[in-house]
Amino acid sequence: MLPSQGVQQQLAALGAVELGAGDLNEVLRAIAELVTNQFGAMGAGLVLADEADGSMVIAASTIVDSNGDEVEGPVTDDNGLNQWIVETGRTVVAASPADMPFGTSRVAVRWGVRAFMAVPITLREKPMGVLHVFHRDQHDWQPDDLLFLETVARRAAVAIDNARLLQETRRARDRAEMLSRMGRALINATSYAELLETAAGVIIETLPADRVHIITIDQIVPRVLDHHIGGATEGTVGRDSYEELMTGLTGWVLREGKALLSRKGVPDERESLMLQERRRANNGGSVLVVPLRYRSQLLGTLTATRTTSEPDFEPADVELVESMANLVAVEVVKSRLHESNEAAANEVMALYQVAQALNREGGIEELMQGLSESVVSALGADRVSLYVTDVEKQRVLYSAQAGSGELPHEDEMDFDQFSGSMCGWVLRNRRSALVPHGARDPRESDAAFDHRSRAGEASMVVVPLFHSGRPLGSLCAYSADADHQFAQRDVTLAFAMGSQMSIALANALLFEETQRLAITDELTGIHNRRQLFTLGERELRAARRYGRPLAGIMFDLDYFKIINDSHGHAVGDEVLEEVVRRARKEVREVDVFGRYGGEEFGMVLPEAGLSKAIEIGERLRIVVAEEPIHTSAGPLDVTISVGVAAISSDMQNIQALLDRADAAMFAAKHKGRNIVQSG
Q: CA-CA distance, 165 to 19, in Å (whole number)?
């Protein structure tokens, strides 16, 4: 049975709305406007769970209150309806106030709502929020109305997830760029005063913040060494003494050695009543304080402040400023050492070389190669090995070698070999190590010692690499020349370089993982919806350019909700994984295969017309249905409904092709499921 004409028109309207990965607010607004227009309603709203505290927030709406303003913000007086829908995953259809669960809420009275529908927004069985449509008058909702609203909610879940993922990807990319910019700016500073001024300026612009206050201290003789205050409101802050600072948030960070975030408008018991009052009097809002630390030495604090009229700092800001503070701390120490003696000047040059290597273009392997080469030069080593590991999975993820010495290459070192060497020992014990030339060190395995012996029982400097307490790997430097033995100052220098490397390596790993997650569906390992559309558009352009055929397939698991309800979501995931595994057997190398959302999957088939697409769709249907899927709950019979379509001259983008295949798939559902339908 084909969808009614009204449903077809609604689905066409839904397909015409741009819900690709973009600005989250724009996506939410487009969904609310679509629902309002299609239902001729007084308004629609999307209520999402706040990711920070789980509270329900009206993220987008087309509802207008009595003042003519659109309603957004925290959800209040809803009698717990939204929370109930999110927790139970059930829909609510109210044709009149008498049908409203939990009674008529004050929100409904205030807005003049007399009828509404509400459906949960979920993705991969994870609740995200609720989609509402409202009428001012009593309204007899039809089954097609609920079907369309649920379809919009499914599309909304995918769109919201993609928009959030894009935001996270951009934040990760921006964070890496900001840290690189900070590193370059600090390197170019020619004096200690310019160093602090540059650091404050970059942080103020990056966050943004109204004021940045950098304080350095002397821990041996407790006192403030230097105050540097930058920003538009720098004149509102005095240069407090060490004793005064210890009564406030700065003192708390100095005592605890960790960062803090203080929100606006909330008394913070970590600072004295006098300082709380001064903060209010100076229009002080959110405050972020992080320690300036170099190795185990606490150098001072870095404080960023906003006024009460601005939003609070977020936890992500804390992580970014901590990374920046690490760069500042390194540069502070570099500046001090440069002013003290010639040996310290050598350390500054070595750190500079590492910083230069951080600016190399390319991936993590190119970064590691550049870092290894800079350490060879700085330490005068015969060979340097740099390792990045996954301790939990016991894998050596990446390795790099540099130097012209006779030590054999270790590119293929596995985790057991790594663990038995000094490189593994320092990582497990979180300590650096200095191994003299010719010494048999009991901390290394026989195989590791034999390796050093083959190159003349090399001297070693080995330091662990950590980031935010997480083990990353090790930096190992070798000298085969008995007249050039490493000393403790080399350990100090290697540790300083390793601290700087750790930040860059952690950011590179984060960027690689973010890129992978941005295009891959986590459960099935195939393309996610965004990548399906990206590659699909590429194939569409090629087909248009060369006049070649192109087809699309959409398929959906039949009665998948029953599987989840009867056996649980874990079994549902097993079914999805096996369906994808079977489908991959029928996918050509040139085909684009991705998860559209939930239990719905899409394919773009280059060099395939409608008949070829029908043939492939039939093979997909058979390979899924021909034998039960074995799960932890036992064998389950699973079928799919398949819709196929070919490009036509009126299709402007890949969305139009997949929408036509999607409509054909819905027709297959109405015809009884487990069939292939062309559109």
A: 14
